[in-house]
Design brief:
Largest sheet: 2 strands, antiparallel
Helix content: over 70%
Number of helices: 13
Number of strands: 2
Order of helices and strands: HHEEHHHHHHHHHHH
Strand order of the largest sheet: 1-2
Distance between the termini: 54 Å
Strand content: under 5%
Structural class: mainly alpha
Shape: globular
Radius of gyration: 25 Å
Length: 369
C-alpha cells in the first residue's frame, strides 16, 4: 500500500530522471565514439603522413625505453581504446590515460550534468514532498517515519541503480558495435567491474543529495547548494590529478562506464560515507518539523557546521584554482583571490544566517515599539 502510494506520487519524477540519466550517459559515450572516429580518420589520412614525415616510429615500453615499430602498429597503438595488458583493479591510472580516447571519466560537461542530475534526484526524494505539502499527509498515516524514509529510499535507490545499470550496459553496447575489435581488448570481468564502479559512484552522489534534501528547506538556496556541490565535486576530481599518490586511489570514481573501475580503497571509502550519510539522513528525517518549511536549514544547530563547511569548501576551491592556474604569478593575483574568498565567505554567511538576522531584527523592532 505504501509503495503504491509513493509510486503514484513520484512516478513522473522517477521516469523523467530515468530518461534524462540514460540520455546523458548515452550522449557522453556517443561523444567519445565520435572523437575516436575522428582520430581514426586523421591517422589514416594523407595529412597524418605529411605531418610525420619519417620512416621511424617509436613506442615507449613500460621500462621507459623506446621500441621501433611499423607505421601500422604505431597507428594501432594510438587508436587502441582498451590496453591488452592490464591488471586489477583496472583504474584509469593503471590503464594509462595518455593514450585513451575514452578518457576514463574526463568529467566533461555531460558528466557534470549527470552529476548534478543524480544529486538533484536524491535531493528531491524528501524535499519534493516537503514543498508539495505531501509530508503533512504522510505523517498523518499509520506508518512511522522510519518506515516512510525506508520505503522512499528503497524505491528511489532501485530506480537509480536500475537506470545507471541500463545506461552503462547501453554505453558498453554502443562501444562494442562502433569500434572495430582490433582496437578493443574486451574483458567481461573488467566490463562488469566498470559498470559496478559507475553505479557506486553515482549512488554515493545520490545519498549526498538525499541528506541535503532532508536538512534543507528553501527551494532557491537548495538549488544553489546542489549546484555548488556538483561544481565542488567536479573540481575535486580534476584537482586530485596534481597529486599522483592520492589520484591512484582517490581519483578513480567513474561517471560513464567504459573499461576502468574504482580502486578498492575508494570503494571502501564510498561505502563508509554512504552508510554515514544514510544514517544522518534517517536521523534527521525522524525529527523533521512542518513548521520549518521555507527556511534555509530545517535544523538551527546545523547552521554553524553548514557555514564552516561552505567556507572551507570555498577555500579548497580557491587553492585548487591557484594550483591549476599557471598565470597566477603576481601578488595582485593573490590579493584578488583573497578578496574573492572574503566575498564568497560573506555570501555563505548571508545564505546561512539571513533568516536568523531577520528574526532578530524583527524582535528588536518589536521591543523598541
Amino acid at each position: 500500500m505504501l509503495y503504491r502510494l509513493l509510486w503514484q506520487k513520484s512516478k513522473v519524477l522517477l521516469l523523467l530522471f530515468s530518461l534524462l540519466a540514460i540520455t546523458f550517459l548515452a550522449s557522453n559515450t556517443r561523444s567519445n565514439i565520435v572523437g575516436w572516429q575522428g582520430s581514426y580518420d586523421y591517422f589514416y589520412s594523407d595529412s597524418f603522413v605529411k605531418d610525420n614525415q619519417t620512416d621511424n616510429y617509436y613506442l615507449y615500453e613500460s621500462n621507459g625505453s623506446q621500441k621501433k615499430v611499423s607505421l601500422e602498429n604505431y597507428r594501432t597503438h594510438l587508436l587502441e581504446v582498451n590496453p591488452k595488458k592490464k591488471s586489477f583493479p583496472y583504474t584509469s591510472t593503471i590503464l594509462g590515460k595518455d593514450r585513451l580516447y575514452f578518457r576514463y571519466d574526463s568529467l566533461s560537461k555531460k558528466n557534470l550534468l549527470s552529476i548534478f542530475l543524480v544529486l538533484a534526484f536524491g535531493f528531491s526524494m524528501c524535499f519534493w514532498d516537503l514543498k508539495s505539502k505531501f509530508n503533512a499527509f504522510l505523517f498523518s498515516l499509520q506508518y512511522s517515519r522510519k518506515q516512510l524514509f525506508r520505503s522512499k529510499f528503497i524505491l528511489y535507490s532501485l530506480f537509480l541503480l536500475g537506470t545507471i545499470f541500463i545506461g552503462s550496459v547501453l554505453a558498453e553496447g554502443m562501444i562494442y558495435f562502433s569500434i572495430p575489435e582490433k582496437y578493443i581488448h574486451w574483458d567481461w570481468l573488467q566490463t562488469l567491474y566498470a559498470i559496478f564502479s559507475c553505479c557506486l559512484s553515482y549512488y554515493f552522489l545520490f545519498v549526498i543529495g538525499v541528506f541535503l534534501g532532508v536538512i534543507l528547506g528553501n527551494l532557491f538556496t537548495g538549488t544553489m547548494i546542489i549546484t555548488f556541490v556538483s561544481l565542488l565535486y567536479t573540481l575535486f576530481q580534476q584537482s586530485i590529478a596534481f597529486y599522483p599518490h592520492w589520484e591512484d586511489w582517490l581519483g578513480t570514481a567513474v561517471h560513464d562506464a567504459a573499461f576502468n573501475g574504482m580502486h578498492p580503497k575508494q570503494i571502501i571509502l564510498y561505502i563508509l560515507l554512504i552508510v554515514a550519510f544514510l544514517f544522518l539522513s534517517n536521523h534527521y528525517y525522524q525529527r523533521l518539523s512542518l513548521e520549518t518549511n521555507g527556511q534555509f536549514l530545517q535544523f538551527s544547530h546545523l547552521k554553524l557546521p553548514a557555514f564552516l563547511t561552505m567556507s572551507i569548501a570555498t577555500t579548497l576551491i580557491i587553492i585548487s584554482y591557484i594550483r591549476v592556474s599557471s598565470y597566477i604569478t603576481h601578488l595582485g593575483d593573490y590579493i584578488y583571490l583573497f578578496i574573492l574568498f572574503l566575498i564568497i565567505t560573506m555570501l555563505s554567511a548571508v545564505i546561512v544566517y539571513y533568516q536568523t538576522w531577520l528574526d532578530r531584527w524583527a524582535m528588536r523592532k518589536e521591543r523598541n515599539t
